[in-house]
Each structure stands twice: as C-alpha cells, then as structure tokens.
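Can you give me the bound-state structure? Components:
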Amino acid sequence: ELKVEQNPLFLSMQEGKNYTIYCNYSTTSDRLYWYRQDPGKSLESLFVLLSNGAVKQEGRLMASLDTKARLSTLHITAAVHDLSATYFCAVTLNNQGGKLIFGQGTELSVKP
Amino acid sequence: NAGVTQTPKFQVLKTGQSMTLQCAQDMNHNSMYWYRQDPGMGLRLIYYSASEGTTDKGEVPNGYNVSRLNKREFSLRLESAAPSQTSVYFCASSEEEAFFGQGTRLTVV
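Here's the bound-state model for the whole set.
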C-alpha cells in the first residue's frame, strides 16, 4: 500500500528565510506532484517530477526528486508572505492506472 | 477553457438523504478521481477511474458509489448521507498532470 508522508506538517517562517519541506513515499512511483492550496480554494499545480534527479524551479520554489531514496523536497528561498499556503505532495503508483495518493500537507505561514 | 467542472458548489443534506455530485472534464483525460478533504487529513482518495468503463476503490470508499458515465463525466453518489460525510469533495482528472475542480462543500446534518 502506498503511503505518502510530509514533514513538517506546520511551518512558521520569517520573511527572507530559507526552508525545505520533505515528502517521503513508501513504494516505487512513476510521478510526483507538488500542489499549493490557499484557504477555501482548490489545488494549484506547482510541479510534476517524472524521473530520478529531476529538479524544477519556479520563482522562490524549487522541487527535486530522488526515486532511489523515495524522497522529494520543496525548497523555499527567501520566503515572502505571498507564499503562505498549504503545500501537498502526491504520488502515483506504478502500473495502477494513475492512482494518485496525497501527503497530509504542510501548512506554511510566512511572517514579516 | 473550463478544465474540471464540479456541481454543485455547496450542498446541505439531512442524514439519510441521497445525492449525486457531478464532475466533468473537457481535457480528454483518461484518469479521473474523487477525493474528500477534511481538516488535518489532507486529501483522501475515495474512488478513481483509470479509463472509461473502469472504476476502483481508493482509500476511503465506504458509503460512496461512482459511475464513469463516459470519458468526460465521473459522478459520486451518496446513497444515505451520514454526518461523517460532511467534507469538501474534489474531483480531478489527469494524463501527465492532474487538474482539480473547485470543490463541493457538503454538510450533512
């Protein structure tokens, strides 16, 4: 059974600081996603990581994937208040028709 | 470009009532999903459909049924609603990337 675990679950940061959110998953997967969710809103796709060693960057966010360690990271550089949101990673099972399982989410609060 | 459309957006049911949540996508995706989101629980997969004509149970299927009516539409039915089914429900579709609808806020009283 595929399990996806994120840590930390809650993160309070000061503006300008760097931090990393970790996503561990339990079985082989062929695709990993990162999403952002603002309160009361739907999920917004941030990154899709398809292969070992994949790294993608958008603004102050950078995501990477290590399939051997079954680990993905979402790194935040010089945080700003607008990044306050809940961030989810999600993983698909190999050969399972794209069954998509989510981590618990990391609630990020960036304070001045 | 509509993407994934869910109806209704809000619903209040009495315990024991039934209802169907509708979901349609216009991106020609094969895979479609239903999730529920509860505070502190993330998104939990209820049912998914890898292609037209197939459906499979997810993590929390009890109390729900689904129908993949055609490639575009994937509905979720609550036959006898219970207060424990109060939640926000999201539909999604995917090929390389998954896209989500705006959600349905369901309250069962």
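A couple of observations. The radius of gyration of chain B is 13 Å. Chain B has a mean pLDDT of 95.
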